[in-house]
Design brief:
Layout lengths: L4 H6 L7 E5 L6 E6 L4 E7 L4 E8 L4 H17 L9 H15 L2 H11 L14 H9 L5 H20 L26 H11 L5 H12 L3 H5 L6 E2 L2 E4 L10 E4 L2 H8 L28 H11 L7 H13 L4 H8 L9 H6 L5 H19 L5
Antiparallel strand pairs: 1-2, 2-3, 3-4, 5-6, 6-7
């Protein structure tokens, strides 16, 4: 039969197994229909009649499939064909190895976690359709943020497979976020901040201390969780470029409340970290990363819900603004590079670090916190 879009749509699935319909207009090219109704373009190549999968209909049109079939047959003739037999699991492992050499450990960890939402395992890459990916994304509709992150990750993955020659095009083409991105605006009120602080004192382990340091410094949770003792000198903390989000080394001062809290943290022999993953020496080379359960416990004990640890950073910035701290100091304390207060030329040539002014700002902020913790609001 001559394969057309209309003809393919009218093909009925067999009662059992699969049935292949070859195209009269192009030898060795056809479409395979499964018992479940899936229709997949294939090409039969070489003397052994090896079957090569091109992709599923209607994700791929008949015209696109014919073009790809011609290319594959031509490459076979020229001896350049590489069978696309790599599975999703195999490609995933190679992708993660590639990411380890290029990306930060946190990014690799996120990729590893998010790719678990796509349990294609032994499925060959060429057999994974946009519908398959969309179906897995639909299981995350109850967690829209997680769905968005998973979509971004699977797009990065398949773009990599295309760049490596495993696929000719990504099956993620056309997939979009279900909702437009809107930045969070949540900040904690003085009463909420006080409740979180006091409840964090009762949370066992590193989580409570990390939470209070986030309130005191406004830094990102990954930066505080990864703190090393050698980065603390006098009343300043230095975060190296390989740790910070914008890959810029930052130095920020801390006040008396922070100094007191740091002095309560015990040192684990053999570990450079303030918050090693475990108090066992065998785990001294990794840092704390158990956020979920203690955060839920903190919400329950504090009575404050609907917030994230990153909201403490926004609360810090907003409180600084309320206290009249100049924005340029707030940006330096938070290691922001917004461009709003300094031109690119100024950022290059202005090497003055504002440390004295930053110390004064931190002192003002901690004084404000003391009033909040005492039960008073300014």
């Amino acid at each position: 039969m001559r394969l057309t879009d209309i003809a393919i749509r009218q093909l009925k699935p067999p009662e059992k197994g699969q049935k292949t319909h070859m195209d009269d207009a192009m030898p060795n090219f056809g479409v395979r229909v499964s018992q479940g109704g899936t229709k997949t373009f294939i090409v039969m190549a070489g003397q052994t009649r090896q079957r090569i999968t091109i992709g599923r209909f209607p994700v791929i049109t008949i015209a696109e499939a014919r073009t790809e079939a011609k290319r594959l047959l031509a490459e076979r003739t020229l001896g350049k064909h590489r069978p696309k037999t790599v599975t999703f699991a195999e490609a995933r492992e190679r992708f993660l190895d590639h990411a380890k050499a290029k990306n930060r450990p946190r990014t690799v960890k996120d990729y590893t976690r998010l790719l678990k939402h796509f349990p294609f395992a032994r499925t060959r890459l060429a057999d994974i359709s946009r519908h398959d990916i969309a179906r897995q994304l639909d299981t995350l509709t109850g967690t829209p943020s997680e769905r968005d992150h998973a979509l971004v990750t699977i797009k990065v993955f398949f773009n990599w497979t295309v760049s490596e020659g495993y696929l000719d095009h990504s099956p993620c083409q056309g997939l979009r976020q279900k909702r437009p991105y809107r930045p969070r605006e949540r900040i904690l009120s003085p009463d909420e901040l006080r409740a979180v602080w006091k409840a964090s004192e009762a949370v066992k382990g590193h989580f409570g201390t990390i939470t209070r340091l986030l309130i005191l410094t406004g830094q990102r949770r990954s930066e505080i969780a990864s703190l090393q003792w050698e980065w603390i000198e006098g009343d300043t903390i230095t975060l190296p470029s390989e740790l910070t989000k914008n890959r810029r080394t930052t130095v920020f001062p801390f006040g008396e409340l922070t100094a007191t809290l740091l002095s309560t943290i015990p040192r684990l022999e053999g570990s450079p970290y303030l918050f090693p993953a475990s108090r066992q020496r065998t785990d001294a080379t990794t840092v704390f990363n158990g956020w979920g359960k203690p955060k839920a416990l903190l919400d329950n004990q504090s009575g404050v819900t609907g917030w994230t640890l990153h909201d403490l950073r926004r609360t810090y910035s907003s409180t600084m603004a309320y206290l009249g701290i100049p924005q340029i100091l707030v940006e330096k304390l938070l290691n922001h590079v917004s461009g709003g207060t300094q031109s690119p030329i100024s950022r290059v040539y202005n090497v003055y670090e504002y440390l004295d002014e930053m110390r004064e700002a931190v002192s003002t902020y901690e004084g404000h916190l003391k009033k909040i913790m005492g039960g008073g609001n300014e």
